[in-house]
Amino acid sequence: MFEKKIIPDSRMRKFLMGFTYAFKGMVYAFSTQINFKVHVLFSVMAISLGIYADLARSEWMWIGAVILLVLIVELINTAIEVLVDLVSPDYHPKAGIIKDVSAAAVLLTAFFAILTGAFIFVPKIF
Q: Is 74 a catalytic residue?
């Protein structure tokens, strides 16, 4: 009497495609943005140093949080830069301000990561 309703696989396919698009975004950032590559390199260095220093769980949480925070803000910065270039292909002072403010957000986040790393690693090194 009652037919079993099957959820169309198109919803699941769209959901899974979201991961594909996100991965493409990370590949784009890594392949086109030197700053993203630098952040990834420093992340690998911090993780390696953390393994060597035998960090506590709470220290790993802080290191992981600041690594992800820097990478996320750098990805957002990249998206903003691409969007600004799309809507304002010619130089415009306000477009420059948008890019500068976006870059400043990355800079502040990176400073926070450096301070966090210093608080965790300096006592273990010295």
A: yes
The predicted-structure confidence for 38-68, as pLDDT tens digits, reads as follows 999 999 999 999 999 999 999 999 999 999 9
Q: Which of 3, 59, 74, 81 is catalytic?
A: 74
Give residue 125's pLDDT band: very low, low, confident or very high (50, 70, 90): confident
CA dist 113 and 105 (Å) reads 12
**C-beta separation of 43 from 71 below 8 A:** yes
DSSP classification of residue 90 = S
Q: How many CA atoms lie within 13 A of 57 on its CB side?
A: 0
